[in-house]
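Homework-ish question, so no full write-ups if that breaks the rules, but can someone show me the predicted structure for this set?
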Amino acid sequence: MKTASVRPSLLRVLIAGVLAWIMPGAGHFFIGERVRGLVFMITIALTFWGGVAIGGVKNTVNPQERALWFLGQACAGVHPFLAIAWSRRVEIPSGADRARWIAYGQMEDISIVYTAIAGMLNVLVILDVLGRAERMGVDQPGGRASPISERAGP
Amino acid sequence: MIDLLATLFCNPLTCDRRTGMLLVLPLSLAVSVVYKTIKCHSLREIPLAVLVSWITILVGMAVVGVALLGLCHILV
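A: Not a homework solution, just the prediction itself:
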């Protein structure tokens, strides 16, 4: 049986990259690296939402007040946008102690660092999936791409 | 369940400065996990590599912290 070895299309590489940005780890799922994808998905989600739990959802992701930090946070894909949507639904009752809803000082800093590092980690994941998708050959007659880690090689 | 989520994510964590330093542990673990999952060719290598990397980061940060504290004591 003949085995075709062709380079993947640019579209396939781009889809893997975009999926990796939207949902960390989804790009690896798309190219067949399911365990790696699951590890990235869980780790980045835990890091991001851990940061939100430290600082409170109301103010941790705040593009108006912290635009540069938001650039880092936005690299974590869907998570910061979910946090923004949630924060808009949370109303601080009038007369309530704002410190019960918004972190100040060290906790505020730590929460922002956590969420921004989750985004930066996802940048590494996106670059990794782009490289893997580009290197991946279609080496089966049916055209199903197999992950690099499953292929025999020197 | 919704109340638990609301408490967990809506109310910020309150802890003192020294306890807050412990939050570097899960953050450095997350960095190690992602970095080593990218670098390791085989998935079986990942747990040990993550552990070594995590300990290296923590020891490295502790050494840098002690060195900066020493420098601070000398200069001030």
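Now go work out the reasoning yourself. Hint: The CA atoms of residues 56 and 99 of chain A lie 10 Å apart.
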